[in-house]
């Protein structure tokens, strides 16, 4: 029999007697010892997965018809299609639409069973189906291929470029940003207290480290903190929020420290998800969105309710679009929450106060829990743009919103000017959360013991930086301003260069760390991508990587209106690399357009 594929690009073989597969006119090469779905289903699946298999065997398979430096994925050519045995090592590297194809029936008749051995207890068929539906484009197959290309360059393999530029993720220090001095000094002193006797550290850093260590169990960073985070640091976060919001009170007991903002976001979503069938929880998320949200909702078997940002109005959020999304969603789920990312990721817009007020009114009227992802609150560049926290706006709107509208707002040390991604520090502040639910949230946090204490230390420095009277103040302020000024210049440069290129349009990068330009792709390129089982912008980004070494993320990984194509690129590369990168990318688009026109 045949099993219907839920995707538009085909069908694949099932069990029992099978008709001869309809193969492409030029069959695709088979990877030696790289069968991804053992058994009779492997043949058709390999045809779909060929463009995503590693170059290690791709070069071997193509050696008879192309030079070793031929870009990946190779154009189809004759090959032996005899099924081979091997591993499923690439499943985790694939886009989710291909993973779903494999996951439907893959592994049911494993090679072990064919050899008379017992099947594994955990297989693709028996594992949690919600996990199979998870996708996260920011670290998807393009990034894995970029890692392979870096290894090949180190091994002396000739490429059309000398380095891979990973502009796919908002990791400032990976892009060369030097850590801010004062936070690292405090962290070093906390990790190795013997340094408190060293003359190489300023007195204010020593005082800060001693204060933090006094608040830690056993006066050591190696001890667990309480599950919500070191109490003193939670109090410092509360004071920061009060200063940020013009004196509006913040209760430390409403603040939970977390392993980056992502950890806190997932925790709150977990509290919200209930029901089955038409009563399943729906969560409204912006499109384009940060893929954490779609991934978490898939994992929890919740319903993703898309509302589209208006690209023609610089990615504005329109309440009329929220109403449309909510009305349609109520036919098949129970919407309970609304997520807003401000400043936007991947779109870089900064919401006006008027827009935030409209969103709060809408959420209150429709009884929706608000999630405010505000991790880029320090990253605002455009003239006339200003960050307004949802907490501040909600409070200043007065009754009934102040006392009734439920809100969770998130922040992180990974973004802003510090860029301390690897230390995983963040927090969530909850407002108007039911007391019993807050206890349940505390229980969830307790199961995970505590956030990493080094991340808590850096968070404390982020929310309570040096004062003007401190010896470290001048240096700290100079470093902070330099980072933010350079990011603002990069944002402006990115918009300028892309908008000078035919076929590329980039909205102003008002904030955050990314541009999300729209690219025009010729119909022949779209057709070629469909033949390879790829989204058109995925095909474009793969070719870009292979020919230029530039790694960006296709817009299809974030969501976009049908018929439009985008990619997300960080503005974090050093200025001396950013302009050549932008120009090279624009030139590649022109070359790509000419090839497929």
UniProtKB/TrEMBL annotation:
InterPro entries per UniProt: ALAT1/2-like, Aminotransferase_I/II_large, PyrdxlP-dep_Trfase, PyrdxlP-dep_Trfase_major, PyrdxlP-dep_Trfase_small
One of the record's GO molecular function terms: L-alanine:2-oxoglutarate aminotransferase activity
Entry keyword annotation includes Secreted: no
Record's keyword terms, sorted: Acetylation, Aminotransferase, Cytoplasm, Phosphoprotein, Pyridoxal phosphate, Transferase
Keyword Cytoplasm assigned: yes
Localization per Swiss-Prot or TrEMBL: Cytoplasm
Domain of life of the native organism: Eukaryota
Cofactor(s) required for function per UniProt: pyridoxal 5'-phosphate
Function, as annotated: Catalyzes the reversible transamination between alanine and 2-oxoglutarate to form pyruvate and glutamate. Participates in cellular nitrogen metabolism and also in liver gluconeogenesis starting with precursors transported from skeletal muscles.
Record text on subunit structure and interactions: Homodimer.
Descriptive protein name: Alanine aminotransferase 1
Species of the source: Moschus moschiferus
Gene from which this protein is expressed: GPT
